[in-house]
Each structure stands twice: as C-alpha cells, then as structure tokens.
Amino acid sequence: MPVVHVNPISCNGCGLCVDVCPNLVLDIEERKVRVLNPGVCLGIKAKQLCRVCQPQTKICAGCVACVRNCPTGAISIIE
C-alpha cells in the first residue's frame, strides 16, 4: 500500500499537491502540507475488518499526482 511522505524542510506550503490529490490524503496545517492519518489502517486486512474508521480514513492510491505537481520535490511515495 502506498504511503505518502512530505519533507517539511522542502515543503513551501503552496498547496498544489492538496489541490490535485483525488483521495484527499493531504492537507495544509501551519503553512506546511501534512498527510492525513499517516499511520491508520496501513494493512489491507485491517482495512477490511475495521468498521469504525474505514469510512473516514483517507488512503493514498499511489497515483503520484502530488509528486508530479510539487515544485520543490518535497513529496515522495513509498510502497
């Protein structure tokens, strides 16, 4: 499952990645981009079994739109 990583030192807070993310995985907080729920439901089994948080959990689909649109190269996706 893809996991988004944002380097806070490189991030300039422009928000381009937030605008292009189809799964709403990213948000801006204190002028920096952050990943919503980075440690939640990181396993497929956990996702399938969970009935409480599953509908609210934003999960990266690995489309790399955020990586392509980041002008500073602050975003990477780890598989």
Quickly describe the structure:
This protein has 79 residues and is an alpha+beta fold. The protein has three helices and four strands; from the N terminus they run βαββααβ.
Identify the notable features of this structure and list them briefly:
two-stranded antiparallel ribbon; 3 helices; 20% helix; alpha+beta; 79 residues; Alpha-Beta Plaits
Describe this structure in words.
There is one protein chain. The protein has a two-stranded antiparallel sheet with strand order 1-4. It has a two-stranded antiparallel ribbon with strand order 2-3. The model has no long low-confidence stretch (mean pLDDT 80). The chain contains 3 helices and 4 strands, in the order E-H-E-E-H-H-E. It is 20% helix and 20% strand. With 79 residues, the chain is α+β, with helices and mostly antiparallel strands. The protein has a single domain, classed as Alpha-Beta Plaits. The chain starts with a strand and ends with a strand.
Shape: globular
- In the predicted model, the low-confidence regions spanning at least 5 consecutive residues are none
* Category by helix and strand content: alpha+beta
- Mean pLDDT reading: 80
Compressed to H and E, one letter per element, the order equals: EHEEHHE
Query: Widest sheet: strand order?
Result: 1-4
- Distance linking N and C termini: 6 Å
**How much of the sequence is in beta strands?**
15-25%
Which architecture does the CATH hierarchy give at level 2?
2-Layer Sandwich
